Amino acid sequence: MARRAGYRCEYCLIHETGVGFPHQVDHIISRTHGGSSDFDNLAYACVLCNRHKGSDVASIDPATGEAVGLFHPRKDRWTDHFRLDAGVVEPLTVLGKATAHLLRLNISERLAERRALGMRYRQ
Fold this sequence. Notes:
The protein is of the alpha+beta class. It has one domain (16-116). The protein has helices at 47-53, 78-81, 94-103, 108-116, and strands spanning 24-27, 42-45, 58-60, 67-69, 82-85, 88-91. Strands 1-2 form a two-stranded antiparallel ribbon. It has a two-stranded antiparallel ribbon with strand order 3-4. It is globular and about 40 Å long. The model has no long low-confidence stretch (mean pLDDT 91).
């Protein structure tokens, strides 16, 4: 799984060598919601993304109050929903916005972490 993900969190893209704790296995669709432990339902996630996501499969769009599904690393392309610019994960879609909000991708500590690791360029 780590090799498939390029040793990066599949949600925030941080490389596992840049953080203090090993990345973890995330059930994209949690077992609580009927997800399996099949390889296609597993994602490589940093501790923070995995903790913030928990068993959630959706979030609320702050602008509309509507439920929106979260980024699904096996079905969605990261670059369709986000871009990385100067350390900021910029959401490009409603799905990206809901995911970034729930996972707290742009709180000050996460920005400092990405900038310290040189994750500054558009991807």
